[in-house]
Design goal:
Elements (H helix, E strand, L loop, with lengths): L1 H18 L4 E2 L5 E2 L5 E2 L5 E3 L16 E9 L12 E2 L3 E4 L4 E8 L4 E7 L10 E7 L2 E8 L5 E6 L11 E6 L25 H22 L11 H24 L4 H39 L1
Parallel strand pairs: 1-11, 5-8, 7-13
Antiparallel strand pairs: 2-3, 3-4, 4-10, 5-6, 8-11, 9-10, 9-12, 12-13
Length: 297
C-alpha cells in the first residue's frame, strides 16, 4: 500500500509541471521608449500608456479599476463560425476611470487588445494597445476620457477581428452598440448555414446547362476564308508594304496634324496612281509600236 501511495505521489509530482500552463510575464521586462510606448525583445508591447495625465474634462480620477482579459481560440467555441475571441465581449466603466488591463494570450500566436477612438492629444494615434506573443501576459494602464462613449476593442492582427476577436468598451452610458460584437450584437453579414449540398449542386447544374446556350448566342459567326483567295493575297501584300513603309511614313508624318496627314496621304495616293497610269500607258505604247513594226519587217 505504501509503495502504491509513493508511486502515485511521484507520478503527481512529475505530471504537475506538464499540466500547468505558464504564461511569460512581459510587464517586468518592458523598456520605456517614451510617449507611453513600452516594448521588449520577446514580442511584448504597450502603446499609449498613461498613468497620471488627466484627459481634458476630468477634474480627478473617478475610480481605479483592474481587469484581466484572456484571448484565445477556445473562447470562440461558443460563437459558431468564429476562430478567435476574448473571454469578455463588453466592458463598462465610469468616465475618468484609471484602468489597468492585464492581457493574457493563451494561444501560440500573437494577439492584441487594442482600444480605438481615444483623444489624440493625449494618446498617440488615438489608441491604447497591448500586444503579446503567446502564451504570455502583459499589463498596461490608461485613464478613460469623460463623457458617454462606446469604444472599439479588438485584435488588429490580420483577420483576427473578422474571426471574432472584437469587443466594446462603454464609458458611462456609451453612445450605442457597435455591430458584429460576438454574443452582444448582430453580425453585419450573418453566416448562412441553411444551404445543403444538394441545393448547391442543383445551382451548379443549372448554371452549367445555361452556359452553352449563352455562349452559342453570343458567339460571332465567321465565314471561312479560302487560303488561295485574292483577299488573303492582297491582305498579305498590304501588310508587307505597311511594315516596309512604316518607318518612312512615321518620319514623314512627324509633327503633322490629323488633317495634314490625311491630305498628305491623298497626295501620295494620287502621285502613285499617276505613276501607275503612266507606266501602263508606256507599256501599251511599246507593245503597240512593236506590233506595227513586225508586219513590215
Amino acid at each position: 500500500m505504501v509503495k502504491l501511495l509513493s508511486a502515485g505521489a511521484l507520478m503527481f509530482l512529475f505530471s504537475a509541471p506538464l499540466l500547468a500552463v505558464e504564461y511569460e510575464d512581459h510587464s517586468g521586462m518592458l523598456m520605456d521608449h517614451g510617449d507611453g510606448h513600452l516594448m521588449d525583445m520577446a514580442g511584448g508591447m504597450v502603446m499609449g500608456q498613461n498613468t497620471s495625465t488627466l484627459p481634458g474634462g476630468c477634474e480627478k480620477i473617478a475610480e481605479t479599476k483592474e481587469i484581466t482579459v484572456h484571448a484565445g481560440h477556445k473562447y470562440a467555441e461558443k460563437f459558431p463560425g468564429r476562430m478567435y475571441a476574448f473571454d469578455t465581449q463588453e466592458f463598462n466603466f465610469k468616465p475618468c476611470t484609471k484602468l489597468t488591463v492585464h492581457f493574457i494570450n493563451e494561444d501560440n500566436i500573437r494577439h492584441q487588445w487594442m482600444m480605438h477612438g481615444l483623444p489624440k492629444y493625449l494618446y498617440p494615434k488615438g489608441m491604447f494597445h497591448l500586444e503579446a506573443s503567446g502564451p504570455a501576459k502583459i499589463s498596461g494602464t490608461l485613464i478613460l476620457p469623460p463623457g458617454d462613449k462606446t469604444y472599439l476593442v479588438h485584435c488588429d492582427i490580420a483577420q483576427h477581428m473578422e474571426k471574432g476577436m472584437k469587443a466594446q468598451l462603454k464609458v458611462g452610458k456609451g453612445d450605442g452598440d457597435l455591430s458584429s460584437i460576438p454574443g452582444v450584437t448582430a453580425y453585419v453579414i450573418p453566416d448562412d448555414y441553411k444551404g445543403s449540398f444538394s441545393t448547391v449542386m442543383a445551382d451548379v447544374s443549372a448554371a452549367a446547362e445555361a452556359a452553352p446556350i449563352a455562349v452559342a448566342v453570343k458567339a460571332p459567326v465567321v465565314a471561312p476564308v479560302k487560303e488561295d483567295s485574292m483577299i488573303s493575297g492582297v491582305t498579305v501584300i498590304g501588310l508587307a508594304m505597311g511594315l516596309l513603309l512604316a518607318p518612312f511614313l512615321a518620319k514623314k508624318f512627324k509633327g503633322m496634324s490629323a488633317s495634314e496627314v490625311i491630305a498628305t496621304i491623298f497626295d501620295m495616293l494620287r502621285t502613285g496612281i499617276d505613276a501607275v497610269i503612266k507606266l501602263v500607258s508606256g507599256l501599251i505604247k511599246r507593245f503597240t509600236n512593236k506590233n506595227k513594226i513586225l508586219p513590215g519587217s
